[in-house]
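Table S4 entry, Phospho-2-dehydro-3-deoxyheptonate aldolase.
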Amino acid sequence: MTRSPHLVEWHPASWQSKPAAQQPTYADKAVLDGVVAELSRLPPIVVSWEIEALKEHIAAAQRGERFVLQGGDCAESFDDCESDKIAKKLKILLQMSLVLLHGLKKPIVRVGRMAGQYAKPRSADTETRDGVTLPCYRGANVNRPGFTAVEREPDPQLLLRGYERAGLTINFVRALVDGGFADLHHPEYWDLDFVRHSPLKAAYEKIVHSISDALDFFEATSRRPIHEMNRVEFYTSHEGLHLHYEQAQTRFIERQQRWYNLSTHMPWIGMRTAALDGAHVEFFRGIANPLGIKVGPSMSAEWVQGLLATINPNNEPGRIVLIHRMGAKEIDKRLPPLIQAVRATGSPVLWMCDPMHGNTETSSSGLKTRRFDNIVNELESSFRIHREMGTWLGGVHFELTGEDVTECTGGARGLTDADLARAYKSQVDPRLNYEQALELAMRIAGLHPP
Ligand code: PEP
Ligand code: MN
């Protein structure tokens, strides 16, 4: 296979010579430049050795030795940066990971869509309401959701506000995790109230008890605590969409002699910005982080091969996570040829299923929603197809929240279109609520016997 030639030497701003999709147009470039300069001086959100640790875990997951759970909001909002909401999101991810650990009998790598998921790709640059056309809402790092010209004007200062909230979020998550909040000996610390009133209560408690018993047994027989269980590792991710923001937090680390994007552990490239000759691919080929790449129904064999050759020319383990999001209807047709195309490159990849983005539809009342059954169907098909093709599906990617929202239909409580209006809070894509998220983890644990 030919490697694509790179005429431009890579540096953190080399993407600027390529077409950059999904970027806001700022009225005053000098203000933006000032903000980027300030962000470049501020301390990083994460550090390179954490990124390298995650890369090792992903390499292990590529070999079938671990399983990755990635989840969080479609977009974080600045208003949601509060202790209760962050703790609840962490709790649901921990609970899901416990269920997965129990079902899959493999260490679970936890990656939150958190601490920086503030920029969104949109299908149109503008939005029209009642004959008025304004720039679309591109996420809290860019502009404001209200439908007035002032609120929709891209504001570079928001990048600093987003950086600060990312810092506040990760600071709180680190403190909780380090303080024993996530200790597997004490899952009651991260109990969510709802479990007590949920149809899933008995099944969840059975899993918790069985893990506690297993821990007690191992500790009693080995006469020492299992240290790995005292503390879990937790990583962050967001879509690496806003390239000025990503560039500003990208630093050369002497110790590793490589460039790292220190705004998050694992950025990903969305479907809409994965053009081979585009600015995003140019930016991401130069950093050492593990990188997610979303692959949807329009991804061709040549395209995915070109992406792997450009972004991972040395076939580095742990570097690439291919997040397929085909939709329950398309997956049987689309996934097998993609697996074959990737196999032909020899590049190690972690296969991950995002059963959310290919299954979005509009409810009878006009709200964006997703049906729980379609999500489960896409997951079931993914596990089956990978098994048939001899590849390991080593991760899942969900949009979820630790709260009791009504954005997706179905699940144990059988939410219908009529329930959606009750607690529909997302500004963007519909999320699984805590109960639907936990149920999904249980379905996976059952689906994928070790
Ligand atoms: C997302 O993950 O929120 C998203 C926009 O995904 P995709 O690029 O797969 O459509
Ligand atoms: Mn989304």
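The chain is about 40% helix and 15% strand.
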